[in-house]
């Protein structure tokens, strides 16, 4: 957009949030974490990932997550390079045996289904779909060995309760990229709970983390040990074995590791996952409460219990151009409130990850009211 099409409106300083980053990923990194990285940089960045300095960081990451998620017996924190998108590819080799079922209700959940559909060694997946702004439920089938769920569909702001489908004996694979660390979870209902660091963990992208159940660990060893070909960098067993030694198969981004560990330990020192969930709950109660009272805005997700506490989507009525509001916010340093493009709605999407101050979410809605009043 050229600058002359951005309406000029200066939001008073007193209304602005203390930090203007509301993007759903990459998302706000706490300045304190960046300062800590800068202080540690000269003895940490640029050192070998096979040496104790970096390996102790991987160890803190794995131990911190084990504590945060109260790992059930036998579950393991595994990590590698490439983000959640890479983990879909790995899962198509190492976790899906013959046929998967996918609850598809937005951009991200549909992508994993596409990966499986294109895999020549797997059967056609079963894809259960629902309208954007809702989610389908998995259904137990005798010919399905992996159920793919998404804890929070970041493109629409829909969150789902994670529950093993009744009577199913397949693995439950959960894309928790935007949810992990901000929403409650009972890992016993999952076999792979996987995510990237650039959302609730307030770090940089480039890494995937997956918490695997004993059944998932056994499935991976069985499939890959049983002779299924897999490209080495996508070999889940290789990743598991490296994680056991607090390493990654190939070189990780050391800054990403550092920032993620900083956020994990920040959350743990404040009370752990319940503390983080409480922050997201306060932010989202404010956002949805504001939208429900507003004369021009309303929550996009109609079922209150399906509204995500970490990514909020707010529809505007036709009297207000959401894109214009987003561009005025951006011109005032409040960024990344634009909706998911392919959803094509007159909407704003607002991240409420644990690193984002609940008071800043309140300030943001104040800014939106100010803009709409003054347009
Ligand atoms: C952001 C996101 C992804 C993609 O994560 P990458 O780290 O870019 O691979 C996948 N799934 C969900 C639900 C996401 O929010």
Name the features.
375 residues; alpha/beta; Aspartate Aminotransferase, domain 1; Aspartate Aminotransferase, domain 2; 2 domains; 7-stranded mixed beta sheet; 3-stranded antiparallel beta sheet; 10 helices; globular; binds pyridoxal-5'-phosphate
Write the layout of secondary structure elements.
Layout: H1 31-44, H2 52-68, E1 76-81, H3 83-94, E2 100-104, H4 107-118, E3 126-129, E4 146-150, E5 152-153, E6 158-159, E7 171-175, E8 192-195, E9 207-212, H5 214-225, H6 236-244, H7 254-270, H8 273-293, E10 297-299, E11 311-316, H9 322-331, E12 347-351, H10 358-374
Number of domain modules: 2
Q: What small-molecule ligands were found?
A: pyridoxal-5'-phosphate
* CATH superfamily annotation of the largest domain: Type I PLP-dependent aspartate aminotransferase-like (Major domain)
Largest sheet: 7 strands, mixed
The proportion of strand residues reads 5-15%
The H/E string reads: HHEHEHEEEEEEEHHHHEEHEH
Distance between the termini: 18 Å
At the fold tier of CATH, the topology name of the largest domain is Aspartate Aminotransferase, domain 2
Strand tally: 12
Rounded mean pLDDT score: 96
Task: Summarize the structure in words.
The protein is an alpha/beta fold and 375 residues long. The protein has ten helices and twelve strands. It has two domains: 3-29 and 272-374, Aspartate Aminotransferase, domain 1 (Alpha-Beta Complex); 43-269, Aspartate Aminotransferase, domain 2, CATH 3.40.640.10. It has helices at residues 31-44, 52-68, 83-94, 107-118, 214-225, 236-244, 254-270, 273-293, 322-331, 358-374, and strands at 76-81, 100-104, 126-129, 146-150, 152-153, 158-159, 171-175, 192-195, 207-212, 297-299, 311-316, 347-351. The protein has a seven-stranded mixed β-sheet with strand order 1-9-8-7-4-2-3, with helices on both faces. Strands 10-11-12 form a three-stranded antiparallel β-sheet. A two-stranded antiparallel ribbon has the order 5-6. The structure holds pyridoxal-5'-phosphate.
């Amino acid at each position: 957009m050229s600058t002359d099409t951005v309406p000029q409106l200066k939001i008073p300083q007193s209304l602005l949030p203390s930090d203007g980053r509301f993007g759903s990923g990459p998302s706000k990194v706490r300045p304190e974490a960046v300062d800590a990285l800068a202080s540690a940089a000269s003895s940490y960045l640029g050192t070998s990932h096979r040496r104790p300095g970096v390996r102790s960081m991987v160890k803190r990451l794995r131990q911190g997550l084990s504590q945060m998620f109260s790992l059930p017996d036998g579950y393991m924190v595994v990590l590698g390079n490439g983000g959640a998108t890479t983990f879909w590819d790995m899962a198509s080799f190492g976790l899906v045996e013959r046929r998967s079922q996918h609850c598809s209700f937005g951009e991200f959940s549909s992508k994993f289904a596409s990966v499986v559909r294109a895999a020549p060694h797997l059967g056609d997946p079963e894809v259960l779909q629902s309208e954007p702004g809702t989610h389908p439920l998995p259904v137990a089938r005798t010919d399905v060995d992996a159920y793919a769920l998404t804890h929070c569909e970041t493109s629409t702001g829909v969150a789902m309760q994670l529950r093993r489908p009744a009577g199913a004996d397949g693995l439950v694979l959960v894309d928790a990229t935007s949810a992990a660390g901000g929403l409650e979870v009972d890992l016993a209902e999952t076999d792979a709970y996987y995510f990237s660091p650039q959302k609730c963990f307030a770090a940089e992208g480039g890494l995937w983390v997956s918490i695997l159940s004993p059944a998932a660990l056994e499935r991976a060893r069985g499939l890959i040990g049983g002779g299924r070909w897999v490209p080495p960098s996508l070999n889940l067993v290789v990743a598991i074995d490296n994680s056991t030694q607090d390493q990654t198969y190939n070189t990780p981004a050391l800054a990403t590791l550092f920032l993620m560990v900083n956020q994990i330990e920040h959350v743990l020192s404040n009370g752990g996952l319940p503390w983080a969930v409480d922050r997201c709950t306060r932010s989202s109660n404010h956002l949805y409460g504001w939208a429900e009272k507003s004369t021009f805005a309303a929550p996009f997700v109609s079922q209150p219990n399906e509204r995500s506490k970490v990514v909020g989507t707010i529809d505007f009525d036709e009297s207000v151009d959401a894109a214009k509001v987003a561009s005025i916010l951006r011109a005032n340093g409040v960024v990344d409130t634009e909706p998911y493009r392919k959803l094509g709605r007159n909407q704003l999407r607002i991240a409420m990850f644990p690193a984002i101050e609940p008071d800043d979410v309140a300030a943001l809605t104040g800014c939106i009211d100010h803009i709409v009043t003054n347009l």
